[in-house]
Amino acid sequence: QVQLVESGGGLVQPGGSLRLSCVASGFNAKMYVMTWYRQPPGKARELVARIAATGGTTEYTDSVKGRFTISRDNAKATVSLQMNNLKPEDTAVYYCNARLNAWNDHWGQGTQVTVSA
Hints:
By secondary structure, the protein is mostly beta strands. The chain is built from no helices and eleven strands.
């Protein structure tokens, strides 16, 4: 059974940090591009950070550059998102995505991140 299970979300004050993790099972995740998306309340889902299958290439949306770091451990089939200096506008449901091609495109259930004083 294909699964992506996210964890690590929660409530944090502005300026704080959280680390999200996504564990893959049921498929060969090391071959997949892994991406974190987020969906703020009332807004569309957006790409946050992406990492290549080998882990050698990463990309970030401009609003998180310098604050967020994506990484992966293919031996553990895990991708992580370290989020520092969190801002209220980072509040969203964060989703993990694994994509090999259009027919092999998997999503997690999401984890809530709330940044508030």
